[in-house]
Amino acid sequence: MNTQDTRRPSGKKLSLKEKYAQMTRGLGWDTTYEPMDKVFDQLGLEGIKIHDWDKWEDPFRLTMDAYWKYQAEKERKLYAVLDAFQQNNGHLNISDARYVNTLKLFFTGITPAEYNAHRLFSMLGRQFPGPGAAIACQMQAVDELRHVQTQIHCISQYNKYFNGLHDHTVMNDRLWYLSVPKSFFEDAISSGPFEQIIAISFALEYLLTNLVFMPFMSGAAYNGDMATVTFGFSSQSDEARHMTLGLECIKFVLEQDPGNAAIIQRYLDKWFWRGYKVLGLVSMMLDYMLPKKVMSWKEAWDIYFVQNGGSLFNDLSRYGLRMPKYWEQSVAEAEHLSHQTWNAFYNFSGAAAFHVWLPSDEDMAWLAEKYPNTFDQHYRPRIEHYRKLQAEGKRYYNPSLPMLCQTCQTPLIFTEMDDPTRTSHRQLEHDGDTYHFCSDGCRDIFAGQPDKYVSAWLPAHQILQGNCVEPGAEAAGDPGADALRYFHVVAGQDNLDYEGSPDEANWLRWKGLDKMPPAAAA
Amino acid sequence: MSVEIRVASIDPIRQTFARTARRFGADKPASRYQEASFDLQPRDNFHYRPVWDPQRDIYDRRRTAIEMRDWDDFRDPRQYYYATYVLNRARMQEAAEKNFEFVDRHGLMATLNAGQVQDIETLLLPLRHLEWAANLNNCFISAYCFGSPMAQGAIYTTTDRLGIAQYLSRIGLLIDGNSGQSLADAKARWLDDPAWQPLRRLTERSLVQKDWFEIFFAQNLVLDGLIHPLLYAPFHSGVGDAGGAYLAMLTEFIKDWSADNQKWVDACLKIAAAESPVNRARLSAWTTAWKAQALDALAPLAQRAAHLDGPERLAAASRALDQRIAKLGFDAA
């Protein structure tokens, strides 16, 4: 080795890109004592062809030392705010205690999903043979763990003062409506590595983050929740990195082989529809659950999917990709989605871990303005009917168990777009059994991988089969009561209407509103 | 004198999350480490079998021969969760940055003699690739292990190993004036130099293992336990010719990291060994298998480092590993 000649201690300055490449890119090698396809043994599962991993463009050239430094600065700031929030009872400054119900939805639905993302990106960080791609995934793996933990620390204070947040991991595994986000993430994590990354990095992070994550953070900002909005700001630069990874990975895969485009299009069709179905929960959060509203679901869908997503797919059309299948239907449904979803939770609030309520007159005026084609025509009359029943002491609950879609696991609560009086219901025969679906999109996804979806754990079926009984506890014989206990939902505390709930009573007491005449308190 | 600020006090309705209360008790507020670390992994009602392992669930206890009644028992004595982890590493990297900057600014690499440079090139820089394998192995553990505390410790070690590979790269860039030649040469050694081949062969063997706890054992206990004293330690001590102290500065991060990481590794092994005689037998069997292979694989490198007491270092490292294993509660080979 000719070291003496090259010893120039203060050599040429390296650009950030060169420095990153020198420090990182050459780390991997082609193994020879063990075959490469044994060391990286999942790459052949899907038929995706990669010819040259070195063509991967590192989307963010972040060395570990810089990562530790930047992330530590962010953590110092975030935890200073969380400390102050706790010390000063920051939970008393929110707009109204109803707001906390959006946190319950987020914490039981999204935080466990972030945990799955942590593990999913660890898998990808091990499975991709190019250090560029692997390192990007490893950093996201540790980022996602950060998000889980900072969300836990942010919600920790709320959990001490409000109900329904206390058992988020068990609830995510068991509670019926949480099988919608749970099955979404388990669908992704049980896939091959390329489908995993397209599902989460591209379909979820790039295409839909502004519709999953940001509505909750913006809701926090509008409703005086300093802890959650600070978490949101603190994670923004992480999210930006994750979105960039999503775009880089799809371009990389498409440029590697012309045969990849057809597989990627299939993934996009599937994961767009899978993601969109999870967003039903977000739609009702935006339209019905935020005391101070940010924007309507329809507005959000217009901006973040139709406009932003549209221009993205324009850009990707040079690779032969088109907009995901059934996207037009999602636009038509935007006029109905939140109203039908909230109605379902009003019906089944006995079995939910958050509270519901009927919109006020003011809320209904807002909904009518945002949904001029549908609200007054279809949804106001129903809400007024519920109101009348409630005033008569005959609050309506749906005593049945709903039929669930075999793919997305949403109850069949949606209607045909050309006839809002008819339930949208699709069926398919497979191996002598009939399976039920909420939509053409979900039926198509099932038809593509029937053997995968027949194994889905459908909560309504499981309750009826007697499988939802707390381990070690004796069955009470009442499937509903047994199921609640199995969900770890405390009856009379976590579920039912906000009005009359312990949350409401505590809030009024803390705010000194309990001594006022009811009219002034409301 | 103390100044009193009066704040409205409101009694909480509970102290912590139910999963934390079940593990640590409901009657007191939990620490941030406790709330952030335990019982986070999904347990019930998996919807689909993974295409990459159709015989098992997405998270499955059966991906190792080690058995635990409680997989969340792997407590980290450092109590790292993300924030405390990055704050600790940020402090370490700040010191490392100052060291690198100092050596670079004063042109101190030029004070190394040819033998020291050769030691760096032949004994230190090829370890970049070993660190990359260690990164992949720990990433495997984080991906496929069972329980959130283990996955958490493993992902921190994953990113640590990448950081170490990058610090090694920077030492090379200091030597070669940022040309990258020393790194290309080190890779050629890793791939072709006969003295490095047995270690590369063993490293590649670790990369095709499927039992994540065996990978933990082979990488974090056996290989690290022998390689650090044999190949890194000579650079930490600052002994020998002028300039040795600068090498100690440039490898200080690696030394401090090793002491820190060993606390976690030992805690995990001790807990697994204490669990059952079956586990102890399994760990002892792995010791027999992996330690002998590792000693064989490192013998040519010990010879290569004979002028740094390589064979004596390796023999001492082997004895120290035996003692450590005895303390952890299972049998050395």
What's the overall average pLDDT of chain A, rounded? 93
- CA-based shape of chain A: globular
Largest sheet of chain B: none
Characterize the overall form of chain B: globular
- Beta content of chain B: under 5%
Mind telling me the CATH superfamily name of chain B?
Answer: Ribonucleotide Reductase, subunit A
Cα(first) to Cα(last) distance of chain B is 64 Å
Q: Give the C-level CATH assignment of chain B.
A: Mainly Alpha
Q: Quote the average pLDDT of chain B.
A: 96
Q: Give the tally of β-strands of chain B.
A: 0
Main-sheet strand order of chain A equals 1-2
**Using CB atoms under 8 Å apart, which protein chain pair has the greatest interface?**
A-B, 103 and 101 residues
Secondary structure: helix percent of chain A = 55-70%
Q: What structural category do the secondary elements of chain A indicate? A: mainly alpha
Order of helices and strands of chain B: HHHHHHHHHHHHH
And the CATH topology of chain B?
Ribonucleotide Reductase, subunit A
Runs of chain A in which pLDDT lies below 50 for 5 or more consecutive residues are 1-9
The radius of gyration of chain B is 22 Å
How far apart, in Å, are the first and last alpha carbons of chain A? Answer: 82 Å
Q: What's the total helix number of chain B?
A: 13
